[in-house]
Design a protein that fits this description.
This protein is 82% helix and 0% strand. It has four helices and no strands. The chain has helices at 2-29, 37-53, 63-84, 91-131. Helix 1 packs across helix 2 (37-53). Keywords: Membrane, Transmembrane, Transmembrane helix. This is DUF3021 domain-containing protein. InterPro entries: DUF3021.
């Protein structure tokens, strides 16, 4: 049951990132284009699958291999999303995909750094309290 909870956690995290990206693209790149039910559902499902694909980083694969596999898998899911929604694929959409992929990675890295800093501060405080 615990693994299923992790599975859902990754799925919903991916769904969140995908939903934000979809809203940003509709707002800034395609203003005036209304979201469709098919578009929203496909974003939810395929972004969730990208989130599940992120579980690859919890394996014993070397980081570079995991990043390459994740990037390729994410790009294939992005192409699938584009096909389902009849979005045109061109150099501009590929550039946007890569840019969004990098931005999401930066957000995750900053979040992890913040978590590590908080944990380190708690450990230092605990060690200081033990010495006192």
């Amino acid at each position: 049951m615990r693994k299923f909870g992790k599975f859902l956690d990754y799925f919903f995290t991916g769904m969140g990132f995908g939903s934000i990206c979809y809203l940003c693209v509709l707002t800034f790149a395609n203003p005036g284009v209304p979201p469709t039910a098919k578009g929203v559902v496909s974003i939810f499902i395929l972004s969730g699958l990208i989130g599940i694909l992120s579980m690859i980083f919890k394996t014993d694969l070397p980081l570079l291999s995991a990043i390459i596999i994740h990037f390729i898998g994410s790009f294939i899911l992005f192409l699938t999303m584009s096909f389902i929604n009849n979005w045109l694929i061109g150099w501009d959409s590929i550039f946007i995909f890569i840019l969004v992929y990098i931005i999401i990675w930066l957000i995750i890295l900053l979040e992890q750094r913040q978590t590590v800093n908080k944990l380190n501060a708690k450990i230092k405080q605990r060690n200081f309290n033990r010495k006192s």
